[in-house]
Design brief:
The chain has helices at about 1-90, 90-150. It is mainly α and about 150 residues long. Helix 1 runs antiparallel to helix 2. It is rod-shaped and about 135 Å long.
């Protein structure tokens, strides 16, 4: 009877050991899957950060262009002041010629101003569109992370 009980006990012990190993394997497999999901989410966040860095570069370039535009405006203002000084000091015929050139330059300046305004509007539209797309991506990523955390809990 004792040996039969000992045999049954060893069988029960073997079943428990096998169950423990199976449980440990399932736990490791689940942890691996969760780690893969977390790594995927981290990769998406890293991509979003890279896109943010690119946007910062574009914004920096925009501000450099804005500075150049202000420098062009300053040059134009200086040209206007110089023209006014020349207009006061030259003869009438010379003034008419200079005035004609000034109006041609003014037309060109207005065309440049229109191009700059259009470029600024296009840039703002692109920036808003890109920001919307990135916000949607980040919102989607946070939803995935929330689902991931919910499944872990």
């Amino acid at each position: 009877q004792f040996f039969e009980n000992q045999l049954v006990f060893h069988q029960i012990l073997e079943i428990c050991s096998s169950s423990l190993r199976n449980f440990q394997n399932q736990l490791v497999s689940r942890q691996f899957s969760e780690n893969q999901l977390a790594f995927h989410q981290f990769s998406e966040i890293e991509l979003t950060f890279h896109q943010f860095s690119e946007n910062q570069l574009v914004l920096h370039q925009f501000f450099q262009n804005q500075l150049a535009f202000h420098q062009i405006l300053e040059i134009c203002s200086t040209s206007v002041r110089n023209f006014q000084n020349q207009l006061a000091s030259r003869q009438f015929s010379e003034n008419q010629f200079v005035l004609h050139q000034f109006f041609e330059n003014q037309l060109v300046f207005h065309q440049i101003l229109e191009i700059c305004s259009t470029s600024l509007r296009n840039f703002q539209n692109q920036l808003a569109s890109r920001q919307l797309s990135e916000n949607q991506l980040v919102l989607h990523q946070f939803s995935e992370i929330e689902v991931g955390f919910s499944s872990v809990l």
